[in-house]
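[step 3/7] inverse_fold.run input=structure_tokens len=197
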């Protein structure tokens, strides 16, 4: 494990000092890839960063984790609130205050968590309105280009047959696994095979 670079350690110091928060331990590794990733374990007092090549993205990633560090401890049920409005209010303020350009913050967050753009827009982050609109029209365009789903095999009663280590429906040939398989073994069911023709 590499030692965290001096800029990262002093960034942690100043963010925690400003917020009057305890200091986490900082674990730092390098990977030969463009972007970074991070994990914060409040209960363990630890922020881990896997640093990629892009220095701005390293900074963004560390500040993102610091925003988690300053926020309430996540609970099992709060997966979405984990990256919700309150989180992004803290995060985008940290990016601003600690010199991550708005465009880099929007690009980095938007690529990882598309919903961040909704929050950034609400927070009035410069450029967020445009980024949000561009993302929305990209999604609309992608949906428009996607070939329509068609019924490939009309609705039928599922007939389970063994196929080596798998189980398939003998009518449409689709592989049945997991909870679906357990349910269909207990009682008969029907399904439709949809797909792109
Ligand atoms: Zn996060
Ligand atoms: Zn079938």
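[step 3/7] decode complete -> sequence:
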């Amino acid at each position: 494990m590499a030692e965290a670079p001096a800029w990262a350690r002093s960034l942690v110091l100043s963010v925690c000092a400003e917020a009057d928060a305890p200091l986490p331990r900082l674990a730092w590794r390098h990977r030969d890839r463009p972007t970074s990733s991070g994990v914060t374990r409040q209960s363990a007092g630890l922020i881990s960063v896997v640093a990629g090549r892009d220095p701005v993205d390293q900074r963004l990633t560390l500040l993102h984790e610091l925003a988690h560090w300053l926020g309430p401890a996540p609970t099992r049920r709060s997966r979405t609130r984990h990256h919700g409005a309150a989180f992004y209010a803290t995060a985008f303020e940290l990016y601003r205050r600690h010199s991550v350009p708005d465009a880099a913050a929007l690009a980095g967050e938007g690529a990882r968590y598309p919903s961040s753009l909704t929050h950034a827009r609400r927070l009035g982050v410069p450029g967020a309105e445009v980024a949000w609109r561009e993302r929305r029209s990209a999604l609309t365009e992608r949906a428009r280009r996607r070939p329509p789903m068609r019924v490939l095999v009309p609705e039928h009663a599922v007939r389970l047959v063994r196929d080596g280590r798998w189980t398939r429906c003998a009518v449409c040939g689709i592989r049945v696994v997991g909870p679906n398989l357990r349910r269909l073994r207990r009682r008969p069911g029907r399904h439709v095979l949809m797909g792109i023709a």
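[step 4/7] annotate
The beta strands are 25-30, 37-41, 46-51, 150-157, 160-163, 166-169, 190-195.
The pocket of zinc ion (ligand 1) is lined by residues 64, 68, 83 (CB under 6 Å).
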